[in-house]
Amino acid sequence: MRCPICGEWIDDDAEFCDHCGVRLDGIAMTGTDQDAEVVDASQDALEATGKLAEKGAGQASSHAASQDLAADVPATQGYRETPSHRGYGARSVEEQQADPVKDGPKSDFVVLTSDQKLGSPYGYRSKPGSRADVAKVKSRYEETSVGKRRSALAIAGCIVLACLIAFFIATEGLSLFSEIAQNDKGEAVEQEVTDTEQEEETVELTVKDGLSAYSWAELDAIADLISACDDRDAAIAVGQEYNLIAEDGTIPDATTTIELSNGEELTVRLIDIYHDTRSDGTVAGLTFLTETCVGTAAITSTQTNAGGWEACDVRAWLQQTEWNLLPEDLTAAIAPVLKETNNEGHASSIAAVTQTEDTLWLISVAEIFGEVNWSGYTDSANAELYNAVFSAEGMQYAWFAEQNEATGSYGALVRTDPDTDSGISWWLRSPSCSAGTQWRTVGSDGTPWCYDFTTVENGIVFGFCL
User: Does residue 120 share a domain with residue 143?
Assistant: First the structure.
């Protein structure tokens, strides 16, 4: 059979034309007896075709298309061809197949109607018409194709844009969201601090009888007032105002208690004001030391003082186990402070003394005894160095200076065993400078220049600041 579009011969069962590529499904076929459809053509087109055939005219350019179909041509008449014209005539399909004429111009084409969408490459079912009509349809198809291509390009552009946005979110976007989250968190923390400050501001300080009459929140507020002073004299005046300092400027013999979460009770004493340095650089307002031993322990698990206070086992125990036993109102008030200590052990130079930041800590030789000028070291040649190391571990607290001067003894240093209620030796913060296996202690009678091997269990007395 012949293709109704280009007029070339194709296989009877072909779905597409091998020459023009048209899809044949649903198109009225011509040139074979397989055509079951009636091909509509206008009467004017048939008459023009007949006249041209009779006169033997050479190329007919096209058949005129008509919107009103005037006659139906039986499918058995087929598609008539002459050397000068191809069109609908009276030859049968058998005659055309027996005597095909392949030369001559192809003048008849089809026009496509929009109500017959089936198998044309332009999207419509075919109907005989003029070359001009086909050109219009082709033009319309090309315009549609251009539109489709533009749409495809637009869709592709949107996809690329979406990918770029996704990439931005995956890189810069996440950091931006992170910064926003951090800002939100920062604002929340700032708000929390503001609320805390407001709570602190709401603490109404009234003058009470003495240390034990104040809550930890009130003592914390007084400590801040003392910390804000320009010198010790001004700090003493604030302490006197709130009955924490005696009229003569000394530390009164006064204590208060701490209720631990395990049910035990500790007695603590105020030992100085305006003395220690907080980790933020400000001066701590109040400094306390326990009157009660909180237990006994070896200062280190192995018999060595290497690493000094910074590395010892008791320091870690205080910061973790003992801290967790303290009430929340006290831990909220405690300020971490900077402590100078021999963190080398058996010292070789004054550089052995370095700072640590501590919330709970042991007291040092110098903080009890003041400037050290001892003799009798085993390594007497280095006595001056050892005295300098001990003396660099802080300044003497007022309570001990005042007690030593008033009594001429160290009775204020005596502590009792919580189990036996008898005197007990207790650990200081200072490792021995002249030996690598010993640590300084306060004797059971209050003598401040004793020492013991590091693995011996002695009492633990700790201090803290507000």
Answer: no
Mean pLDDT of the region 260-285: 97
Secondary structure, 3-state, 180-203: HHHHHHHHHHHHHHHHHHHHHHHC
Dihedral angle over CA of 403, 404, 409, 410, nearest 10 = 70
Q: How far is CA 208 from CA 164, 214, 240, 250, 256, in A?
A: 69, 7, 11, 18, 14
Average pLDDT, the chain: 75
324, part of any domain: yes
- The average pLDDT across 300-305 equals 96
Whether 207 contacts 233, CB under 8 Å? no
Axis-axis angle for helices 216-227, 174-202 (nearest 10): 100
Please say whether the beta carbons of 107 and 88 come within 8 A: no
Per the DSSP assignment, residues forming a β-bridge with 457 are 298
| Per-residue pLDDT at 94 | 55
**Containing structural domain, residue 428:** 249-465
For residues 405 and 414, give the distance between their C-alpha atoms in angstroms, rounded to a whole number.
Answer: 16
| 3-54 pLDDT per residue, tens | 777 777 777 777 777 777 767 665 554 444 343 333 343 344 444 444 444 4
* Nearest residue to 461 (alpha-carbon basis) of 324, 322, 358: 322
Which secondary structure element, helix H or strand E, spans residue 270, and what is its range?
Answer: strand 265-273
Specify whether 181 is located in the same domain as 56. no
What is the secondary structure of 206-238 as a DSSP string? ---SSGGGS-HHHHHHHHHHHHTSSSHHHHHHH
For the chain, report the end-to-end CA distance as a whole number of angstroms: 108
- Rounded CA-CA distance 437/449 in Å is 16
Spatial neighbors of 10 by CB under 8 A, at least 6 apart, are: 1, 2, 3, 17, 18, 19, 24
Same domain, residue pair 274 and 367: yes
Please give the biggest Cα pair distance in the chain: 153
* 218 is a domain residue: no
Residue 210 domain-assigned (yes or no): no
CB distance 108 to 5 below 8 Å: no
Residue 198 has pLDDT above 70, yes or no: no
